[in-house]
Write a structure and sequence with these properties.
This protein is of the alpha/beta class. It has 3 domains: 212 residues, 2-Layer Sandwich (Nucleotidyltransferase, domain 5); 108 residues, 3-Layer(aba) Sandwich (Rossmann fold), CATH 3.40.50; 95 residues, no CATH class. The chain is 37% helix and 13% strand. It contains 15 helices and 14 strands. The strands form 3 sheets. A 7-stranded mixed sheet has the order 1-4-3-2-5-6-7, sandwiched between helices. A 4-stranded parallel sheet has the order 9-8-10-11, with helices on both faces. The chain has a 3-stranded antiparallel sheet with strand order 12-13-14. Strand 3 and strand 4 form a beta hairpin. Helix 10 packs across helix 12. The longest helix is centred in the middle third of the chain and has 31 residues.
Length: 517
């Protein structure tokens, strides 16, 4: 399936604080009352294991393993009857939960509003426990209906029957957004401390994005279902059934926003979340707690080992290297790999999604690379030399790139910008393709936008994955972005944009994917 054009970023995310009389919370409650689709997500402070030895009295007490994490941020992306979107980031530490409980509970169970989420059952359990702890018994949430899990939506868009058992392995939301929407969803702030205040602008934007893009994934699903049902021989009967269901909703006081096909989505594809008593209680046994910590995607353990770079790198000529820096970025910092490629550095990623430490080490030994990671546990391997691994300390990709350039004293020249394939780390052909050659090379693989047909464009093809690139808006934006990063760290001179052929060979490797239009 070809990636769709990226939707606009949620720049209008609204931070909600204050009580019911505050403008922010009042606006949220009005939007929830008028919403016809609402996407949810939640954030909480990462859980850490208790220390093995007792700490001094001044140290904060470790979290109680018999309690579920406290949700501190709730994100809601609302779509109203007019199709407009609003995104709210609710600071649950600054909003009286008593003012929010009744509207939320009514929304969760309102038949005429479709609720969207990504593996939302765990979030709901934590949210329910948070309200119960603050307001007392019977103040939780145990039901969400109708509900559509974006995990199931993704499998449907990939050709699986939602009525049958779906594959157990599911991609992350970031991977799904990149594949379906061609959106790079930054996850560096996922493990930040969501209990600290004030929330940073980066945290607010990150939180808003998680809920916001669920609406656009639903749009792809809605479009596919609509097309299939219109082409179905039973479409007429289906429309009659949907109309009947819409009448039932209207008569019960629940206005229906959806057209016939969208109503069909509720009746045919939606599900519900029902929490049992066991879902709202933490697993207190040591073994179960360990399993929970390891499976909680929003909780990462932190370490404080000495991870300063010792050197020299394996590519250093003094130790027999070829002088060309080469890195391997583990799965925790795959975004850094793309940034390194954009400035012309050889940055590979593991061949499988869940590599064993031994596999990572074998790869760096074989290829003469340095392993870049944020996993401090890898540093503990006794058979790993100090010049073969570096623990990246920064959270944001731009900061990580600057850190690597500075740590390894890398020299980034302007002719290396955009000189590698950002998709696979491959190199480019030496001679550019004409438009006709690019169209032929892209058949069955990539779509060349028609808006390029009347331009005198040159295309560059990756020799490994055959991805096509060209100079366009995204190319120039990317060059300016990485020029800024490299100016700070490498004192790089400002790049000159030219159109003559000799200069085109100097900047021939382009970062604009044809799939992004």
């Amino acid at each position: 399936m070809d990636p769709s054009p990226a939707p606009p970023p949620p720049l209008a995310a609204q931070l909600v604080t204050g009580d019911a009389s505050s403008p922010a919370l009042s606006h949220l409650l009005r939007s929830l009352a008028a919403a016809r689709i609402v996407a949810f997500d939640a954030e909480w402070k990462p859980r850490r294991r208790a220390p093995s030895a007792p700490s001094d009295d001044a140290s904060p007490a470790p979290p109680n393993p018999t309690q579920l994490p406290t949700v501190t941020v709730l994100q809601l992306a609302c779509r109203g009857e007019d199709g407009g979107n609003e995104v709210f980031v609710v600071d649950l530490l600054a909003v009286p939960l008593a003012d929010l409980w009744a509207p939320l509970r009514e929304l969760f169970e309102r038949p005429g509003v479709l609720k969207l989420g990504f593996r939302f059952k765990q979030d709901l359990a934590y949210l329910s426990a948070t309200f119960t702890a603050a307001l007392g018994c019977d103040s939780g949430f145990n039901r969400v209906e109708p509900f559509l899990d974006v995990t199931n939506v993704y499998h449907y868009l990939k050709g699986h029957d939602m009525q049958k058992r779906l594959p157990k392995e599911t991609k992350s939301l970031a991977s799904i957004c990149e594949e379906l929407l061609n959106v790079s969803l930054s996850k560096e702030l996922q493990c930040s401390d969501w209990s600290c205040r004030p929330l940073s602008e980066g945290q607010i934007q990150y939180a808003a994005s998680d809920a916001y893009y669920l609406l656009y994934i639903f749009d792809l699903f809605h479009q596919k279902v609509s097309i299939e049902e219109k082409c179905s021989p039973t479409a007429e009967a289906s429309d009659e059934h949907c109309s009947q269901r819409a009448s039932e909703c209207s008569s019960s006081g629940n206005d229906i926003y959806f057209d016939g096909y969208s109503t069909s989505i509720i009746t045919k594809y939606s599900d519900r979340i029902l929490l049992t008593e066991s879902d709202t209680k933490a697993r207190s046994s040591r073994r179960k707690e360990k399993q929970k910590l390891s499976s909680d995607a929003k909780c990462k353990e932190k370490f404080d080992y000495n991870t300063e770079w010792m050197g020299p790198p394996p590519w250093d000529p003094s130790v027999g290297g070829d002088g060309y820096p080469k890195f391997l970025c583990d799965v925790m910092i795959e975004g850094l790999a793309k940034h390194l490629r954009c400035v012309g550095l050889d940055a590979a990623t593991p061949s499988c999604r869940k590599p064993q430490p031994r596999e990572l080490l074998d790869q760096i030994y074989k290829e003469g690379r340095i392993l870049l990671t944020r996993d401090a546990k890898l540093i503990k391997y006794q058979y790993l030399a100090t010049n073969q691994v570096y623990r990246v300390k920064s959270l944001l990709k731009h900061d990580q790139l600057a850190e690597v350039i500075d740590t390894f004293q890398l020299k980034i020249s302007e002719d290396r910008l955009m000189s590698r394939c950002t998709k696979c780390n491959g190199s480019f052909i030496q001679k550019p393709l004409t438009l006709e050659e690019a169209i032929e090379a892209s058949k069955g693989f990539q779509v060349i936008p028609s808006c390029l047909f009347n331009r005198n464009m040159e295309f560059w093809k990756c020799t490994d994955c055959n991805q096509l690139y060209w100079e366009g808006t995204q190319y120039h934006n990317a060059v300016q972005k990485f020029m800024s990063v490299c100016n700070i760290n490498c004192k790089l001179h400002r790049m000159r944009y030219t159109t003559n052929h000799s200069e085109c060979t100097r900047v021939r490797n382009h970062s604009e994917r044809s799939s992004s239009g």
